[in-house]
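Changelog-linked ticket: manganese (II) ion example.
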Amino acid sequence: MSILSSFAEALVAGRIEVVDLTAPLSSETPVIQLPEQFAQTAPFELEEVSRYDDRGPAWYWNNFRTGEHTGTHFDAPNHWVTGRDGDDVASVPVQRMIAPAAVLDFSVQVAENPDFLLEVQHIREWEVEHGPLPEGGWLLYRTGWDARSASQQDFINADDTGPHTPGVSPECARWLGEEPSLIGMGVETVGTDAGAAHSFDPPFPCHAALMGSGKYGLTQLQNLAQLPPTGALIVAAPLPIVSGSGSPSRVLALVDRG
Ligand code: MN
């Protein structure tokens, strides 16, 4: 039997489970809030065209407006100045939209400290237990932050000093950019960088390193708790927005339950 036939059989029989890592997309979906001197991205909005009425008696449909970086979405290399000559979201090779994932769980640490930062040492320790990061794969960074995604306020978690959400240290961000096995990093928060990363050196080091090395970001993921540390296969397919910097994406994980 061919690999794909066995795969299809396992999928139909439920021995391969499909886990949805995507947050629902609505006007309630949290969006990033930048310091006020910068332009802001748009939340998701639906505009009804017709709904079985005079405007269209037999059909219902909507227009929508949204930022490219709203909800569960994909960051393309050209999103950041360090990757300005890199791929736009329409040029991301489709071969890379299906890739293995390592899932690193720091939800316990983040419950104690919302400003928790991932360090290279944490990844090294994970590798001692689980083996090397998968070739051509994603590092998915679980923080438990998906539990907050129903509320803009809880998700952004800002006070007078700015947002407090977990992320990656500048040193670890550089390492992620240079690590040849990775195609990108996925997170549960509003962006791949920590809430406090506006004041890091460099600012937003994860964006700078990932985009600058032609890698990708995936944000606002959910249900990472349902994934094993190794062995999941991720389908992350952004819309091919020509010249776009990112796109809301349906992100799925295939998990072997056989
Ligand atoms: Mn983004």
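Closing comment: Example verified and attached. The chain has one domain: 3-256. Residues 69, 73, 75, 191, 217, 219, 246 surround manganese (II) ion (CB under 6 Å).
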